[in-house]
Write a structure and sequence with these properties.
Blueprint (H helix, E strand, L loop, with lengths): L2 H27 L5 H30 L5 H7 L8 H9 L10 H11 L11 H19 L2 H11 L11 H6 L1 E3 L4 E2 H15 L3
Amino acid sequence: MTLYNIQIKFENNLESINRSRKRMERLFSKKILIQNDLYQTYRGLFLSTITSFETYIEELFYHIITTSDKPVLRKYKPIIIFKNESIARAIVHVDKKYLDWLPFDRAQKRLEIYCSRMDSFKSIDKNEENALREMITVRNVLAHSSSHSKDVFLKAISSYKLPPKEQTPVGYLRSVYRITPDETRFELYQNYLISISKKFIA
């Protein structure tokens, strides 16, 4: 497995998710799918999108600290190289079953512990940083749907002056971000994630 293979795997996952989204939209437009089912589908697909990105970061991280690939070593300059991923996971996880990779600063801080060069992980621009924050906000309200998460979501999108039907998490994801080329906010976020993922291996 190479950095390129890890990135392509992630990109293919997002493309598969988006194909499913488009298929559900077509079924909904033909009245084969009811709105509630469409909304539940969006919820699952967006959560899968975020999970895929977290998995990508995790796979990238463990590849960096267990590889013998010289280009990767030059790029990230890991402080320690583990013999294999099982040993690396045992050390990094300690007694935790799962690690959080988002918000993104958690991934950055973890990599800083094990690598002396962080250029790629710090190369994302302000638009990408803002998009990541928005995605986490949408993820949280879809996953928890608490009063607090709803308030945070509405505050995050307040500057966009959206119509009422687009002021819900799914309505927001379905809304058209631009017409030429046609792109929903769901697709916009996926494109941001792909762009960010490519920077990590450039």
